């Protein structure tokens, strides 16, 4: 949240387009008149947009509430980005390693994280499309065995496949409510 907003007397424009606290447009006004209206309602004028053509959009709201909501929204988006876990697999993986990685996927899904599985194919592995698809189907079946309500999306790239897994929240919430 680095953006600094201009408020009240920091706005250097003679005419502004004003929006009230309920997001209803008031229209094009003289800056001094808009500032008088805002002070009368114990609110602040905050510059939302400044176009090069000279039209400045200003919103009339409480500045502290505005900043508080922006910080909350920023923190919420930041948490969403952290919930993606990545796991990398190869076609020729040992059975124990495969089970270990599958176990990690289950742990992440139980905790509510989204999982991105990256299947890297190198050299001749790229040519054996059938074996790659068999491996991907095996992986999907193993995930669906324990979590049948899992959404799985497969994205094909040049040298690898990306598989995105996440629990279907509607189904998992319904199961919790039945218990």
Automatic annotation (TrEMBL):
<keyword id="KW-0648">Protein biosynthesis</keyword>
<dbReference type="Pfam" id="PF05198">
    <property type="entry name" value="IF3_N"/>
</dbReference>
<dbReference type="GO" id="GO:0043022">
    <property type="term" value="F:ribosome binding"/>
</dbReference>
<dbReference type="GO" id="GO:0003743">
    <property type="term" value="F:translation initiation factor activity"/>
</dbReference>
<dbReference type="InterPro" id="IPR019815">
    <property type="entry name" value="Translation_initiation_fac_3_C"/>
</dbReference>
<dbReference type="GO" id="GO:0005737">
    <property type="term" value="C:cytoplasm"/>
</dbReference>
<dbReference type="InterPro" id="IPR036787">
    <property type="entry name" value="T_IF-3_N_sf"/>
</dbReference>
<keyword id="KW-0396">Initiation factor</keyword>
<feature type="domain" description="Translation initiation factor 3 C-terminal">
    <location>
        <begin position="83"/>
        <end position="146"/>
    </location>
</feature>
<dbReference type="GO" id="GO:0032790">
    <property type="term" value="P:ribosome disassembly"/>
</dbReference>
<dbReference type="InterPro" id="IPR036788">
    <property type="entry name" value="T_IF-3_C_sf"/>
</dbReference>
<comment type="similarity">
    <text>Belongs to the IF-3 family.</text>
</comment>
<protein>
    <recommendedName>
        <fullName>Translation initiation factor IF-3</fullName>
    </recommendedName>
</protein>
<feature type="domain" description="Translation initiation factor 3 N-terminal">
    <location>
        <begin position="7"/>
        <end position="75"/>
    </location>
</feature>
<dbReference type="InterPro" id="IPR001288">
    <property type="entry name" value="Translation_initiation_fac_3"/>
</dbReference>
<dbReference type="Pfam" id="PF00707">
    <property type="entry name" value="IF3_C"/>
</dbReference>
<dbReference type="InterPro" id="IPR019814">
    <property type="entry name" value="Translation_initiation_fac_3_N"/>
</dbReference>
């Amino acid at each position: 949240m680095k953006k600094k907003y201009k408020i009240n007397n920091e706005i250097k424009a003679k005419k502004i387009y004003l929006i009230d606290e309920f997001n209803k447009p008031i229209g094009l006004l003289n800056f001094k008149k808009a500032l008088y209206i805002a002070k009368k309602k114990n609110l602040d004028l905050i510059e939302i947009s400044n176009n090069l053509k000279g039209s400045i959009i200003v919103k009339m709201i409480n500045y502290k509430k505005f900043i508080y909501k922006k910080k909350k929204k920023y923190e919420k988006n930041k948490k969403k980005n952290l919930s993606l876990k990545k796991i990398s697999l190869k076609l020729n993986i040992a059975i124990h390693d495969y089970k270990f990685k599958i176990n990690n996927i289950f742990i992440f899904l139980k905790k509510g994280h989204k999982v991105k599985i990256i299947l890297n194919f190198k050299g001749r592995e790229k040519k054996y499309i059938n074996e790659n698809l068999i491996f991907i189907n095996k992986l999907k079946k193993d995930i669906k065995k324990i979590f049948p309500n899992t959404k799985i999306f497969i994205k094909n790239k040049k040298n690898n496949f990306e598989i995105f897994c996440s629990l279907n929240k509607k189904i998992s919430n319904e199961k919790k409510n039945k218990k």
